[in-house]
Structure formats: structure tokens, C-alpha cells
């Protein structure tokens, strides 16, 4: 039996060279970026107005040209004794024609280019009309209200690092630097199947002593969410010859194989022996974790294989804790699970502390509550949980208010 931390180390020390491909920007969200992205331009690309208002010259400080400063909140004095003449209206996307000199201003829209000579933009809300083409400022000072060229991103700057999982916010960065076909890691091909003579597919009404196969649907969804590409191979009976055929076939056609069931100590748990016969090098067969003790991990050539325990909660948790990190490794991803320390809402206790225990919890208003959980067959425990609490080896009780370690789901 290995400690969970050692099992994770073994999984994460595997070598695997991710494939790469280009995808259309519209397909890129959720994928792992496989090449650094540099900006092809300054952002903003020109000094632009942050507000709808009037571009003019401040009355104190530098009045010649624009004073680059990212301190847009700086309060500066503005001309408000005499009205200013409005010389043009600058809409977004147009080039200003008139330079600004003292006594003059240009009406300007948010996102439009600040005209030469202007060094601040007064918000339209802080002005009043003083006759045709004349405007007066009603306040004595203003912020500059200019976004200066290059203040967010400089041309040539690294804007996204390879290895990130592309989020909607990254999509905006990719779009703004014109990365229309980013290089991403190819999706690992994942073969999935269930083992067990008692299993029928979800569309079948189980006979006496049978149950529906829930692991395959759960695993396929977990694999897709990473994202990776699942292929389902069906239900294998608890017979060595048939298990061998399906394991061999799945290993030959995938980057990773995940099967459930048949890995523990029962008379019909043939999976580890059949894996060996099929040429798999097995790295571990038991982990000091609950649920998920009989987890088998191995490799044949360039294909990895996980034999997960048949109980759906065990399969769910071990996928989260070990399989998902492996899939990210296989894509050169820098993804890490979201983890935090939060206070426990009630006292918690367990009988044995020989294994690390992973407990389904609900985090509510910053406090952690274990959900009702009858053990690793209790499928709906995780349908209400939004986190997994980690109870370390050696700990049997945790007091209300104690800080506990939670992995977000
Ligand atoms: P095993 O790991 O094969 O000993 O199975 C442990 C428990 O999980 C047994 O109660 C099985 O009936 C159940 N089980 C195994 N595979 C599945 C599956 N694919 N879907 C739902 N339950 C399963
Ligand atoms: Mg079984």
C-alpha cells in the first residue's frame, strides 16, 4: 500500500510528450495552450478616452501634449472660468482632425482617440452648455480620464503562458492580440469500460441481483470536462479471457485507459492479473486513501491504465485526485486543483484513521459541512457536494470551527 502523496508523485513523474494542434479561436476555450502568446501591438494601441466628455488642456502642470501616467485617478485642475469652444466631435474609430489649444476643446466619446494637445477629458456629466458650440465645466477639477497607449500591454510582451487552461478571460486576450488559431495540446484519447457480471446499461431495467452501470456515464463526463476524448468500450464480464481482450484493445487505441471494478480482493477480481498478462507495468495496486484503496495504476508503452474501484464514489474521487492530474500532465498543463482552508461547521469524527479520508462537503457562507454519506456506494452524496474535505491519516476527530482543507469541485 502506498501513501496517497506517493501515488500522486508516481503519477506525476510519468513522461509523456503532448501532441499539439491549431484550433480556431472559437474552439479554444477549455483547451490547454501549447505555445506562449505575445502581443502584436500596444494595448491600448493609442491614447484613448475613458469617458464620454470633452478633451482639453488642464490649467496647471504640463499643458503641452499628453503627460503619460497610469495614475488616471490623479485629480487635476481644469479651466472653468471661461467657456471653451468645441472644435469637433470625435467618435470612436475616427482620427481627430483638430489639435487642442488653450480655450478650445473637442467633444469625445468613450474609446475614441484623444486629440493632439489634449491632456485630460472632462466627463460630460461635469459640464453645461454656454451657447452654441460653447461648453463650461461645472467643477474645478477632474481625473485625467485617458487610457494611455501601452499602459495595459506592450507590443511584444508575453500575455499568456503555455500550459494554461484557456478560460473566457483568456479568450479576450487571444482575440485582442489576433491569435485566431492558437496552438493547443491535442486531447488525450481515453478508453473507458466497466467490469462486473452484475451490471446492465442505464437503458435496461436491472434483473434480480443486477444494478445499472453508473460509473461509465460519470467517467465519460469527468473525462470530457478536463477536456479529453472518451471512447466507451462497454461492460466487460468478470472473466479473464474477455477482460484480456478488452484491456488489450483499449490499450492499443488510447493514451489512457480507465476501467472500474474487479480490482479488489474478491474471488472474481481478475483485473490486476489480467493487466499484467497484457504487458502492463503496474506501479501501485493499493493506496492508503478512503474511498479508493484498491486503485491500480500502470503503463504499457505510451499508454497509461487506471483500474478504479467499482463503487461510484470511489471512482469519482480517484478520478478527481489522480486521473485528472495525469490527464493534465499529458497535455503539458499547469492546472492545479483549487484548494482552501475553511472552518468546519460541525464536529466530525470517524472510526479509523489508518487512511487519508476524502469526505464530500458543502461549503456554505465560508463554512464547511460534511454531507450525509453512507459510504462509497452512496452516489448522491457527490451530487449535492461542492467540495471534498481531506482528513489526514492519524486524525479521527475534527472540532467545529477547526480549519479544514477542502478541494473545490
Ligand atoms: P468491485 O470493485 O468490482 O468489487 O465493485 C464494488 C461495488 O461497486 C459493487 O457493489 C459493484 O456492484 C459496484 N459497481 C461496480 N461497477 C459498477 C458500475 N460500473 N456502476 C455502478 N456500480 C458498480
Ligand atoms: Mg466487480
CATH class of the largest domain: Alpha Beta
Main structural class:
alpha+beta
Number of helices: 7
Fraction of residues in helix: 10-25%
Please name the CATH architecture of the largest domain.
3-Layer(aba) Sandwich
Integer tally of domains: 4
Look at the structure and name the CATH superfamily of the largest domain: MoaB/Mog-like domain
Report the uncertain regions. 61-70
What CATH calls the topology of the largest domain is Molybdenum Cofactor Biosythetic Enzyme, Chain A
Give the terminus-to-terminus CA distance.
27 Å
Strands ordered across the widest β-sheet: 8-4-7-6-10-9
What small molecules does the structure contain?
A: adenosine monophosphate, magnesium ion
Rounded mean pLDDT is: 94
Q: Please describe the biggest sheet, giving its number of strands, its sense, and whether it closes into a barrel.
A: 6 strands, mixed
User: What is the radius of gyration?
Assistant: 31 Å
> In percent terms, what proportion of residues is strand?
25-35%
Strand count: 30
Name the shape in a single word: elongated
Structure description:
With 409 residues, the protein is of the alpha+beta class. The protein folds into 4 domains: 4-16 and 186-330, Molybdenum Cofactor Biosythetic Enzyme, Chain A (3-Layer(aba) Sandwich); 20-43 and 152-185, Alpha-Beta Complex (Molybdopterin biosynthesis moea protein, domain 2), CATH 3.90.105.10; 48-147, Molybdopterin biosynthesis moea protein, domain 3 (Molybdopterin biosynthesis moeA protein, domain 3, Beta Complex); 339-408, Beta-clip (Beta Barrel). 18% of the residues lie in helices and 30% in strands. It contains 7 helices and 30 strands. The strands form 9 sheets. The protein has a 6-stranded mixed β-sheet, with no helix packed on it. A hairpin with a 2-residue loop joins strand 26 (356-364) and strand 27. Helix 3 (215-225) packs parallel to helix 6. The model is unreliable at 61-70 (pLDDT under 50). Adenosine monophosphate is lined by residues 194, 196, 198-199, 211, 213-215, 260-264, 266, 309-312, 377. Residues 195-196, 238, 261-262, 310 line the site of magnesium ion (MG).
Amino acid at each position: 500500500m502506498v501513501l496517497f502523496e506517493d501515488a500522486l508523485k508516481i503519477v506525476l513523474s510519468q513522461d509523456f510528450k503532448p501532441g499539439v494542434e491549431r484550433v480556431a479561436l472559437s474552439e479554444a476555450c477549455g483547451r490547454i495552450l501549447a505555445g506562449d502568446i505575445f502581443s502584436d501591438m500596444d494595448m491600448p494601441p493609442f491614447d484613448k478616452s475613458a469617458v464620454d466628455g470633452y478633451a482639453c488642456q488642464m490649467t496647471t502642470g504640463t499643458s503641452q501634449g499628453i503627460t503619460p501616467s497610469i495614475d488616471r485617478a490623479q485629480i487635476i485642475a481644469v479651466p472653468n472660468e471661461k467657456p471653451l469652444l468645441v472644435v469637433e466631435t470625435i467618435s470612436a474609430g475616427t482620427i481627430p482632425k483638430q489639435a487642442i489649444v488653450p480655450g478650445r476643446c473637442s467633444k469625445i466619446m468613450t474609446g475614441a482617440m484623444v486629440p493632439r494637445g489634449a491632456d485630460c477629458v472632462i466627463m460630460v456629466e461635469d459640464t453645461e452648455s454656454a451657447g452654441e458650440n460653447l461648453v463650461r465645466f461645472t467643477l474645478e477639477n477632474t481625473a485625467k480620464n485617458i487610457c494611455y497607449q501601452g499602459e495595459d500591454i506592450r507590443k511584444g510582451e508575453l500575455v499568456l503562458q503555455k500550459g494554461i487552461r484557456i478560460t473566457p478571460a483568456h479568450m479576450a486576450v487571444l482575440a485582442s492580440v489576433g491569435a485566431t488559431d492558437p496552438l493547443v495540446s491535442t486531447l488525450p484519447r481515453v478508453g473507458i469500460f466497466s467490469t462486473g457480471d452484475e451490471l446492465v446499461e442505464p437503458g435496461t431495467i436491472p434483473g434480480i441481483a443486477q444494478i445499472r452501470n453508473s460509473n461509465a456515464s460519470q467517467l465519460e463526463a469527468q473525462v470530457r470536462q478536463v477536456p479529453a476524448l472518451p471512447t466507451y468500450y462497454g461492460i466487460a464480464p468478470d472473466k479473464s479471457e474477455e477482460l484480456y481482450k478488452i484491456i488489450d484493445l483499449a490499450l492499443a487505441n488510447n493514451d489512457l485507459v480507465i476501467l472500474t471494478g474487479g480490482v479488489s480482493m474478491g474471488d472474481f477480481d481478475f483485473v490486476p492479473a489480467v493487466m499484467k498478462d497484457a504487458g502492463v507495468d503496474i506501479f501501485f495496486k493499493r493506496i492508503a486513501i478512503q474511498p479508493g484503496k484498491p486503485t491500480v495504476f500502470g503503463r504499457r508503452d505510451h499508454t497509461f491504465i487506471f483500474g478504479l474501484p467499482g463503487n461510484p464514489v470511489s471512482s469519482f474521487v480517484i478520478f478527481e485526485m489522480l486521473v485528472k492530474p495525469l490527464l493534465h500532465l499529458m497535455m503539458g498543463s499547469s492546472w492545479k486543483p483549487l484548494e482552501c482552508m475553511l472552518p468546519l461547521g460541525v464536529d466530525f469524527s470517524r472510526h479509523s484513521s489508518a487512511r487519508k479520508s476524502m469526505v464530500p462537503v458543502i461549503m456554505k457562507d465560508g463554512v464547511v459541512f460534511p454531507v450525509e454519506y453512507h459510504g462509497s456506494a452512496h452516489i448522491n452524496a457527490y451530487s449535492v457536494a461542492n467540495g471534498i474535505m481531506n482528513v489526514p491519516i492519524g486524525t479521527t476527530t475534527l472540532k467545529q470551527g477547526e480549519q479544514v482543507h477542502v478541494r473545490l469541485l
